[in-house]
Design a protein that fits this description.
23% of the residues lie in helices and 31% in strands. A hairpin with a 5-residue loop joins strand 4 and strand 5. By secondary structure, it is α+β, with helices and mostly antiparallel strands. It has 2 domains: 50 residues; 176 residues, no CATH class. The longest helix has 24 residues. The N and C termini lie close together (7 Å).
Length: 232
């Protein structure tokens, strides 16, 4: 590449990078993924928040979200139910994301600052106002400590048996994930496997502006290389 074209390449790339720095996207977007420990039920979704804001202790709470969509699937990958803007439609919604570690908090009870409660859960009452049951497809956490040591785990539960044809994986739940217990321990079957249950994870989605910028840099570099080959 000639000195002139080298200089042009550096200037053009520098200008493109400066655009990325001057115009950062405000919305941080993450994909959500989870797979059950027993039968392989799964969840997929997406959430976003304004990453120019300062959050207490670096934790994004439900009220801080700009968007939150979640969908649940059976072991064969068929959609069971999806919830759009779940943070706005579910009164019991509880979601907490640590921006410093990139982790979704789910080691506490569903109604605690380090727990999770998404989907839907509605208590049913009789005419006298007494609770008679519940309904809703719900993903929620618990951390009982029967012997002093918490056992954090999450459940996907079909409250009200709205989907009677779906197989039950553990207890009354469609599926579960125990973070400190193996599948063999849960099923009391030595041959069931030693896999621990997995947490719901968040995976950052690249900012559209960054993708466009990087693509422009690559295209510009390619064109300049072709030009240099012609003029060399």
């Amino acid at each position: 590449m000639s000195p002139v074209h080298k200089r042009g390449f550096v200037i053009a790339v520098g200008a493109t990078l400066s655009l990325l720095i001057i115009n950062p996207a405000q919305a941080a977007t993450f994909r959500i993924e989870w797979t059950g420990q027993i039968l392989g039920y799964s969840a997929e979704g997406r959430f976003s928040y304004d990453d120019t804001q300062a959050f207490e202790d670096g934790i994004v709470r439900g009220d801080d979200l700009d968007a939150f969509d979640i969908a649940f699937y059976d072991p064969q990958g068929n959609l069971i139910e999806e919830f759009e803007d779940n943070h706005l439609t579910y009164s019991g919604f509880n979601f907490n994301f640590d921006t410093q570690t990139g982790e979704i908090l789910q080691d506490g009870f569903f109604n605690e600052p380090n727990g999770i409660d998404i989907g839907e859960y509605t208590v049913l009452f009789d005419e006298a106002g007494e609770p008679t049951g519940a309904t809703g497809l719900n993903f929620w956490s618990a951390a009982p400590a029967p012997e002093g040591e918490p056992i954090p785990h999450v459940h996907l539960t079909d409250f009200g048996n709205e989907y009677p044809d779906l197989p039950i994986g553990f207890g009354s739940h469609l599926d579960v994930a125990f973070f400190t217990r193996t599948r063999a321990q849960l099923l009391d079957d030595p041959g069931a496997g030693d896999q621990l249950g997995q947490r719901m994870v968040a995976i950052q989605v690249p900012e559209p502006g960054a993708l466009v910028g990087l693509g422009a840099i690559a295209l510009l570099a390619h064109r300049l290389r072709r030009t240099s080959q012609v003029t060399r």
